[in-house]
Amino acid sequence: MPRQIFQLKMSLAGVRPPVWRRVLVPGGYTLDRLHRVVQHAMGWRDCHLHSFEIDGVQYGVPDPDGELSLRDELDVRLDTVLGKGSRFRYTYDFGDWWEHDLMVEDAFTADPEERYPSCLDGERACPPEDVGGPSGYLLLLAALADPRHREHAAMREWAGGGFDPARFDPGRASTLLRHLC
What we know:
This protein is of the alpha+beta class. Helix content is 27%, strand content 28%. The longest helix is centred in the last third of the chain and has 13 residues, at 133-145. 28% of the residues are buried. InterPro entries: MM3350-like_sf, Plasmid_pRiA4b_Orf3-like.
């Protein structure tokens, strides 16, 4: 049976200008592998907890203390819970609360000449880890954009001199996906 590929669009909720990615992933991937795809495509470093919500059901890494009621993401293949047009949510870092809206834009048969997963497109850099969620990111962007802002120098140093919120390279994201997923 030929492999099914899902074309997913991931958008970071609550952030303007928009930060998004379009990726191709095998339908046979489990949710834990999709977690890694989101991490590498968006530019996160996988330093925090995460969960998926699909049709009202929460998936993630089971909590040994039982405080979070999550179904095990290792047991769930994409092609068993998703199809073309499906919408679902991925939350990363329960402190900063980064919500990602995901949509299956298309589903098709894998091209035997292509390697998956891959990143087709996207816009803007991912916010730095631990910036304080969408509101903290807005403050960072304001400080970086205005050299007269009282936090400009401190935020520039904290974010790293090379941080450019407008920069995104889908080719680099594809390379990371192929090596790390």
